[in-house]
Write a structure and sequence with these properties.
single chain, alpha/beta, Phosphorylase Kinase, domain 1, Rossmann fold, seven-stranded mixed beta sheet, 6 helices
Length: 232
């Protein structure tokens, strides 16, 4: 089956792969050709290999498909990723920022960290694992330089606080942040809209300017994505 590749209109390093049937899927150019991270499909077009990006397994892909207009991830960026898990989204960000960028990956659980090491870090030189608790950003202060952007995807009750505490130490002035609000990690019974609003207000109180807030439905029913700029 033949495929057609087109660059995403707003996001450099992100692509649309279309089949003969006209079905288009999100993809990134594989920085580590021949290697899969989470069982994703690999498609070769004109001597280039693309990885299909599953929005049901990556909140960032879901946000892109929800037409978030101002995703602050660009080639060459330095990024701090809080809650890296086994590296599904990390690997696609790595594709986007390329070999000139880098990702510092904070993860506190040993098992997903081992998977991150073996499936991602072993094949990508600029992905740096940090075994640490994202609630204690001062403990890994010496391990990284100021970053351009923080991506926060943690299953903790105080998600906005964790992002804010990390920004004060690790994010450059005028840098950007994305917060994947996991509402049911905060409260299992309250209205989603109330939880989203409260987390956004906490960010505003900590010197974040909010650009976009969007629900990730239908890809993720109880989560939202916030894109912001840090003015601290």
């Amino acid at each position: 089956m033949s495929h057609i590749v087109k660059t995403h209109k707003r996001l450099k390093g992100v692509y649309w792969i279309s089949s003969e049937e006209g079905i288009s899927k999100l993809a990134t150019l594989n920085l580590s050709p021949g290697k899969k991270v989470y069982g994703e499909r690999l498609i070769r077009i004109n001597d280039k290999e693309f990885r299909i990006w599953d929005p049901y397994k990556s909140k960032l892909a879901a946000a892109i498909l929800r037409n978030v207009p101002n995703i602050p991830i660009h080639p060459g960026n330095r990024i701090l990723y809080l809650g890296a898990a086994s590296g599904t989204t990390v690997s696609h960000i790595s594709d986007i920022i390329g070999e000139s960028g880098c990702i510092y990956c904070v993860e506190s659980s040993p098992r997903p960290l081992r998977e991150l090491l073996s499936n991602v870090c072993a094949f990508r030189k600029r992905v740096f694992p940090i075994f640490a608790d994202a609630r204690l950003p001062e403990r890994y202060r010496v391990l990284l330089e100021k970053v351009d952007m923080i991506y926060c995807d943690v299953a903790q009750p105080e998600q906005a606080k964790i992002l804010s505490d990390n920004a004060k130490i690790h994010l450059r002035h005028g840098g950007s942040a994305m917060l994947a609000i996991k509402a049911r990690s905060i409260n299992s019974t309250r209205k989603l809209s109330e939880i989203f609003k409260e987390e956004v207000e906490k960010l505003k109180a900590n010197n974040f300017y909010i650009n976009t807030v969007v629900s990730l439905r239908p890809y993720d029913k109880a989560n939202a994505m916030v894109v912001s700029e840090y003015k601290g």
